[in-house]
Design goal:
With 204 residues, the protein is an all-alpha fold. The chain folds into two domains: 127 residues, Four Helix Bundle (Hemerythrin (Met), subunit A) (Up-down Bundle); 43 residues. Helix content is 72%, strand content 0%. It contains nine helices and no strands. α1 runs antiparallel to α2. It is elongated.
Length: 204
């Protein structure tokens, strides 16, 4: 029980600290790195509470979407990619520190599960019997029955956020040729095709 409590408090402290750093640091690269650290710590808390499916979804979906977030940051701020690559060594200590913290936390989670396996009563959330309802099945039943309206509202909010992100990055530039399908379909044969008689042995 002591090991689980220590790991819980460590993960919670790092999660809160990394969340504060995400909104306080001025460098967007550092903010993304601290955001990844926050996601991993939240996934570790889910694992301690027996919600392995939520932890995996958090890592796969949100950590995988960090690259898209970084892309939007680069598009909005017009960061010089060449200069950013030249400053790789400047970001290396921060990335190495975050990686070291993640490694220590993973070792702590593994140690908590190893010590808890000897005594089933020490587990924060014991694994259910194989014949019981699986974790994913129980979560799906709860979301799509009791919280279906909140789930749909969350999807609507994400849709509005996606449209807002597209509108923020949409820039009107003059002098760019754009395809107009309606204009192409309304063209007549006379305006589209020109017949010219070329004399023999001469060019157009």
């Amino acid at each position: 029980m002591i090991v689980q409590a220590i790991v819980f408090y460590v993960l919670s402290a790092v999660l809160i600290a990394s969340g504060v750093l995400v909104i306080s640091v001025r460098n967007p690269v550092h903010a993304v790195l601290f955001l990844i650290l926050a996601f991993f710590n939240a996934a570790g808390l889910f694992v301690l509470n027996g919600a392995e499916f939520l932890a995996m979804v958090l890592v796969v979906v949100y950590v995988g979407a960090v690259a898209v977030l970084f892309l939007f940051v680069v598009m909005l701020l017009d960061i010089n990619l060449l200069r950013m690559r030249e400053g790789f060594l400047r970001y290396l200590p921060t990335g190495a520190l975050i990686g070291l913290i993640l490694l220590i936390e993973l070792a702590g989670i593994y140690a908590s599960w190893s010590f808890g396996a000897a005594e089933p009563g020490l587990l924060a959330a014991p694994a259910p019997d194989p014949g019981a309802v699986p974790n994913t099945d129980a979560l799906g039943r709860l979301i799509y029955t009791d919280y279906i309206y909140l789930f749909q509202a969350a999807g609507l909010i994400l849709l509005v956020a996606m449209i807002g992100a597209i509108m923020l990055t949409l820039r009107a530039r003059s002098g760019i040729l754009r395809q107009s399908i309606a204009h192409q379909l309304l063209r007549s044969r006379a305006s589209s095709i020109e017949l010219r008689k070329v004399p023999r042995g001469e060019g157009v």
